[in-house]
Design goal:
Elements lengths: L5 H5 L29 H17 L5 H10 L2 H8 L4 H26 L9 H5 L8 H28 L7 H22 L11 H8 L2 H20 L4 H24 L18
Length: about 280
């Protein structure tokens, strides 16, 4: 049987206060980075952390598979953030930094013996399972990052910049363009060739069950909903925002666990998820 850390799966995260009303402390207790520094240097620092992670993990490690494919598009993330006028560059970079740092925060939490958000736990728990294929690891990572982290990063950025989500819509689209590149790299590098990927292969079914477009749409809707809940008068708004955030985290984690259903070893083709940078 593969190695699975069930404690990682069953641990219960504290409900984050991402939907807190404006004026609340910017630090997000769920590993968010509402007060993160902005600018190209901050994006470079995230990329440096990811390279350091990659040097520590074996090539077949499931988190390493996602880390490598994510690292290949971080340069493009910085380039897209540098486009447009000064205000646009500031907004896009602020969002991009907070988005990327949520992944880094999840890795740091696990490395320190703590708990990652529920959306990331399946990937960390199954990272060494021999029956899970590299493509599944990559999909589980992008599922957690887009389905959960992106929505919360939008809210973090709004709180830091003192604006609503509508101002960040253009930045959200630019980050989304980089995510399309990320999905393309996953398919180019990790999807077996047509001679290996048969119609009856369970991997074909998994690949068709998850959609980046739907995940992005859901993240934008979640961000707008959390923002409105956090600004609602009275105590019920922030309370509902906390519950919404926790349920979002857990529902994305459930999808991740299904994406990581062990399918058995591949008889041939890519088995390590090696990705050129």
């Amino acid at each position: 049987m593969g190695q699975i850390d069930e404690s990682t799966l069953s641990a219960r995260a504290e409900p984050p206060a991402v939907g807190a009303a404006p004026g609340a402390a910017d630090a997000a207790p769920d590993g968010g980075t509402a007060d993160a520094p902005d600018g190209a240097a901050a994006l470079d620092a995230v990329a440096a952390r990811m390279r350091a992670f990659g040097a520590l993990w074996p090539a077949g490690d499931g988190v390493a598979v996602f880390n490598r494919v994510y690292l290949t598009v971080t340069g493009e993330l910085g380039r897209r953030a540098g486009e447009g006028g000064a205000g646009d560059r500031r907004d896009v970079t602020a969002l991009a930094v907070r988005f990327a740092q949520r992944y880094v925060a999840a890795v740091d939490a696990v490395g320190a013996g703590g708990r990652a958000p529920a959306c990331w736990r399946p990937l960390f728990a199954y990272r060494r399972h021999p029956g899970v294929r590299p493509l599944q690891f990559a999909l589980a990572g992008i599922n957690a990052h887009v389905g959960h982290d992106l929505a919360l990063a939008v809210v973090d950025t709004c709180r830091a910049l003192g604006c609503g989500p509508s101002r960040l819509e253009g930045g959200f689209e630019r980050v989304g363009e980089v995510l399309v590149l990320l999905e393309e790299r996953i398919r180019e590098e990790l999807v077996p060739g047509p001679d290996l990927l048969e119609v009856a292969d369970p991997l074909t079914h998994l690949l068709g069950c998850w959609s980046l477009d739907r995940a992005r749409d859901g993240a934008w809707l979640a961000a707008r909903s959390l923002w409105q809940l956090g600004r609602a008068p009275g105590p019920w708004g922030p309370e509902l925002a906390e519950e919404f955030t926790e349920r979002l985290d857990r529902s994305v984690g459930l999808v991740g666990r299904m994406l990581l259903t062990p399918l058995g070893r591949q008889s041939s083709g890519s088995s390590t998820g090696a990705i050129s940078s």
